[in-house]
Amino acid sequence: MVLVRFLVPYSWGRNVVPVNAASTSASRIDPALRPYVPQMIGNENLPGVRQLLGTRSSLQSLSAVTTPSFLFQGRRDFAFDIDQAGDAYRKLAGPKRLYVGDFGHSPSSFPGPDLSHVLDLSIRWYDRFLKGIPNGVDKEKPVQVASDPWSGKTASFAAPPAVKRITLTSRSRATLEARGKLVRTFRLPKRNIEQFGAPIVQVTGATPTQWPHLVAVLTSVDARGQETILSEGGTLTSFGRGARTVSFKLISDANLIRSGSKLRVYLGATSTVQNVANLLYLKLVPDGSRLTVGKVTLTLPILPKTISR
User: Fold this and answer.
1) In this structure, what CATH number is given to the domain that contains residue 219?
2) Which of 11, 94, 197, 200 counts the most CB atoms within 10 A of its CB?
């Protein structure tokens, strides 16, 4: 019986490898990986990086795993996101369960407030598949999502939950400087909604210089003015003198957005455009770069029915 943690092949939009590598002593990094670390941090040689990490990923082999497996995933985890857990869950061939709980890497913490529930689920799984106790854990709906903030409430599903999508558009036009930022604000339906999955940002822009990559940080601002980071991500770009459109996924996570809130999308070269303490994406664009941004579209995946209150 195994409890699974995993890492899918690296993509620029998910900054897992650079963040972890930059904070790890070189002596603790596999010698085969060390030459690639500066490239990962510097956003260089991405085909080579993807090929290297793809061969080291467990994802490609999970369809051969028949061992009973229980995956535990945090709702808000900016190192390992929900899509990674969902991809692994779908590929596993044996008995399996997935719990998406109120814990995780930053901006969450581990253990979380649902620790006793996590331990109870774990023990029941071990009892069933190690001790052979017919406790019914394998007969329950296999995917469970916790409320946030944790209230003891969960929702169970036969598979990773299906979502609806809200599409929001801003059409104003502005120029982004190399060390500057653009902020677009979006109104929401006047009810609680629960984001679940990877938001998608689509940006139409043009540049007379160059703009090699773009970062987006998505936040919510509640009725009291309190701002919360919902997700963030980045992509390589192909902007030129003529208008072109890029589309990219942000980190897949889960957030309750309360009625009366509005959404903000910050666009720039680094995640510090949202806050100087937001250090997830730090590579700058060349000095003098300018990007004229027009239409910005945000697609937000939401649960048909909220779990959290």
Assistant:
1) 2.60.120.260
2) 197
Domain boundary residue, one of 128, 157, 186 = 157
CB 134 within 8 A of CB 125: no
Q: Are residues 92 and 216 in the same domain?
A: no
According to DSSP, residue 8 is labeled P
Give CA separation, 226 vs 24, 197, 261, 290, in Å: 34, 22, 9, 31
* CA–CA dist 165, 42 (Å, integer): 34
- Report the SS3 class of residue 52: helix
- Residue 217's CB: how many other CB atoms inside 10 A? 28
Q: Which residue has the tokens 């409890």?
A: 3
Q: Which pair of structure tokens corresponds to residue 231?
A: 């997700």
**Per the domain annotation, does 308 fall within a domain?**
no
Separation of alpha carbons 82 and 108, rounded Å: 14
Amino acid sitting at position 2: V
The β-bridge relationship of strands 262-268 and 182-187 is antiparallel
**Ranges of residues in the chain whose predicted pLDDT is under 70:** 1-24, 41-43
The pTM score is: 0.89
Residues 171 and 147 in one domain: no
pLDDT recorded at residue 20: 57
Q: How is residue 210 annotated by DSSP?
A: -
Interior CA angle at 13 toward 46 and 24, to 5°?
Answer: 75
